Amino acid sequence: MPARVKAASRPAVTLGEPRLRPEAIRAHIEATRSVIRSLDEARVALSAHAAAAERRAAEAESDCERVGAVLETYRVEGALDDVLRGTLRQVTALMEARGLG
């Protein structure tokens, strides 16, 4: 009869820390999806406003109307800056929650 070889001792399997569990990962994915969706919605809205300002500038018949169109473009640019700053804050928080920050 062949000799029995004792299996090497292995540590017991333990659950990963809470942030690595499937439900936590799903929550992170959903949070990421939400940030991306919000950014895309802002892109659509800002694109529409920028296009309207561009049309307004092209159709302007006076300097006053052109200045108004330029001011509207600056407002769109400011709104874009706000969206980018907000998105950066959200993405930074997501990264920190994942241990990447």
Task: Put the structure in a nutshell.
By secondary structure, this protein is an all-alpha fold.
Can you describe what's shown?
There is one protein chain. The chain is mainly alpha-helical and 101 residues long. The protein has one domain (20-97). The protein contains two helices and no strands. It has helices spanning 22-59, 63-97. Helix 1 (22-59) runs antiparallel to helix 2.
Q: How would you describe the shape?
A: rod-shaped
Q: How much of the polypeptide forms β-strand, as a percent range?
A: under 5%
Give the total of domains.
1
Largest sheet descriptor: none
**What structural category characterises the helix and strand content?**
mainly alpha
Number of helices: 2
DSSP strand count: 0
Helix and strand pattern: HH
- Helicity range of the residues? over 70%
Q: How confident is the prediction overall: mean pLDDT?
A: 89
Q: Low-confidence runs (pLDDT<50, min 5 residues)? A: none
Terminal Cα span: 59 Å
Question: Notable features of this structure?
Answer:
rod-shaped; single chain; 101 residues; mainly alpha; 2 helices
List the helices and strands and how they pair.
Elements: H1 22-59, H2 63-97
Helix pairs in contact: 1-2
